[in-house]
Design a protein that fits this description.
Blueprint lengths: L4 E6 L5 E2 H15 L11 E6 L9 E2 L2 E2 L5 E2 L8 E4 L4 H5 L6 H12 L3 E5 L3 H6 L7 E2 L6 H7 L4 E2 L5 E3 L3 E4 L3 H15 L1 H10 L27 H9 L7 H7 L4 H12 L3 H19 L4 H8 L4 H11 L4 H6 L10
Parallel strand pairs: 1-3, 1-7, 3-6, 7-8, 8-12, 9-10
Antiparallel strand pairs: 2-5, 4-5, 11-12
Helix pairs in contact: 1-6, 6-7, 9-10, 11-12, 12-13
Protein name: Helix-turn-helix domain-containing protein
Pfam family, one: HTH_18
InterPro entries: Class_I_gatase-like, DJ-1/PfpI, Homeodomain-like_sf, HTH_AraC, HTH_AraC-typ_CS, INH-QAR
C-alpha cells in the first residue's frame, strides 16, 4: 500500500502513564522519522488526541501531558490507524472508553483504514466491534480479560502479533515494535524494514507466530492443598513425575487432584508439567551457557531432540535461536 498516513490515537492526554509511553513511542519512532535514503516517500505521522487538544506539555502526576495537533476527526482519512494503549482503568475496571473514540475508529475502518492495536489498544478495537470473529492478541497479562469481555474474539495469548489483513493486533512492549516493522515490511519491502531494524538495533524480523515470553510460575490459588505439591514439583522437574505421585503427595485421589488442578490453573496436570519444564528450560537458556543437552536434562524434557521438539512446537523457535535473544552473562551459573 506504500507509506501513506499513520494516525496514532492518544487515549490519555493528561498524565500518560510512563509504562504506556513505550507503546506510544514505538509508532512515533518507526513511522515518524523520515528515512529518505531508504524510501523516497516516508509515512506521514499524526498524533490524534481523544481529548481536548489544547493541553500543555508538562509533567502531571506520575505521567506526562501531551499536546497534539490532531483530533479524532483526523482518523477519517488516515491510511493506517494505530491504538497503542488504553487507560488502565478501561482494562482493569471496565471503565467505558470515550464514545467519540469508538465512533471514530468505526468510521476510519469503514473508510478503508488499516486498523492496528498494540498491547491494550486491542480493547479499543474490540469495543468498536472490529475484532468480532477475528483472531487477535494482546499482552498475555490482559488476554484473559479481553476474551472474557469480548467472547466473539478468538483471543490467542501465545503469539507476538496477529496479521488479519486489514486489522492487526500485537502483544505488549517489544512485540509492538515487531508489528510496526512488519507493517513497514508489508508496505515498503523487506530491504527497507531490515535496514530500519538495523538502525534501531533490533532483530530484523520476529515472526508473529513466535510465542510470547510468558511467566509460567505456580499460579495464584486459594487451594492450600495444591500449593505445596506444585512448589515441590517445580523443585523436582528434573525427575520423572507422574500424576499419581503428585496426587499422593497432595493426599488426594488422582481424579480429585486432576479436577482441582484444572480448576486452579485452567489446564491438565500433564500440560501444567510441560509448561513448568518449558519455563525452566527458558530460564536456563536465558541465564546460563549450559549445553542444550544439559538444559533438557535439568528441565525434565530429556534429550536435546525432545527439548528442540517441544520448543519449536510451543515457543515457535529452536532452543539455540531462543538463547541468542538473551545474551548470557559471563558469570552464568552452571
Amino acid at each position: 500500500m506504500g507509506a501513506g498516513s499513520v494516525a496514532v490515537v492518544v487515549t490519555e492526554e493528561l498524565a500518560v502513564p510512563s509504562w504506556d509511553l513505550y507503546e506510544l513511542s514505538i509508532p512515533c519512532t518507526v513511522f515518524g522519522t523520515p528515512q529518505p535514503d531508504l524510501a523516497d516517500v516516508w509515512y506521514e505521522l499524526r498524533l490524534c488526541s481523544a481529548e481536548d487538544r489544547a493541553q500543555d506539555g508538562a509533567v502531571s502526576g506520575t505521567g506526562l501531558s501531551l499536546r497534539t495537533s490532531y483530533g479524532l476527526d483526523d482518523l477519517a482519512d488516515a491510511d493506517t490507524v494505530i491504538v497503542p494503549s488504553v487507560p488502565d482503568s478501561c482494562v482493569d475496571e471496565g471503565t467505558p472508553l470515550p464514545p467519540d473514540l469508538i465512533t471514530a475508529l468505526r468510521g476510519a475502518y469503514d473508510a478503508g483504514a488499516r486498523m492496528v492495536s498494540l498491547c491494550t489498544g486491542a480493547f479499543a478495537l474490540a469495543e468498536a466491534g472490529l475484532l468480532d470473529g477475528r483472531r487477535a492478541t494482546a499482552h498475555w497479562m490482559h488476554t484473559a480479560q479481553l476474551a472474557e469481555r469480548y467472547p466473539k474474539i478468538h483471543v490467542d495469548d501465545s503469539v507476538l502479533y496477529v496479521d488479519d489483513g486489514d486489522v492487526l493486533t500485537s502483544a505488549g512492549l517489544t512485540a509492538g515494535l515487531d508489528l510496526c516493522l512488519h507493517l513497514v515490511r508489508r508496505d515498503l519491502g523487506a530491504h527497507v524494514a531490515n535496514q530500519l531494524a538495523r538502525r534501531m538495533v533490533v532483530p530484523a524480523h520476529r515472526p508473529g507466530g513466535q510465542a510470547q515470553f510468558i511467566d509460567l510460575s505456580v499460579p495464584e490459588t486459594d487451594d492450600q492443598g495444591l500449593a505445596p505439591v506444585l512448589e515441590w514439583a517445580r523443585a523436582h522437574l528434573d525427575q520423572p513425575l507422574t500424576v499419581d505421585e503428585l496426587a499422593r503427595r497432595a493426599a488426594m485421589s488422582p481424579r480429585t487432584f486432576y479436577r482441582r488442578l484444572r480448576a486452579a490453573t485452567g489446564t491438565t496436570p500433564l500440560r501444567w508439567l510441560l509448561e513448568q519444564r518449558l519455563g525452566r528450560a527458558r530460564m536456563l537458556l536465558e541465564s546460563t551457557d549450559l549445553p542444550v543437552e544439559k538444559v533438557g536434562e535439568l528441565s525434565g524434557l530429556g534429550t536435546a531432540n525432545n527439548l528442540r521438539h517441544h520448543f519449536l512446537k510451543q515457543v515457535g523457535v529452536s532452543p539455540s535461536d531462543y538463547r541468542r535473544m538473551f545474551p548470557c552473562s559471563t558469570a552464568a551459573v552452571r
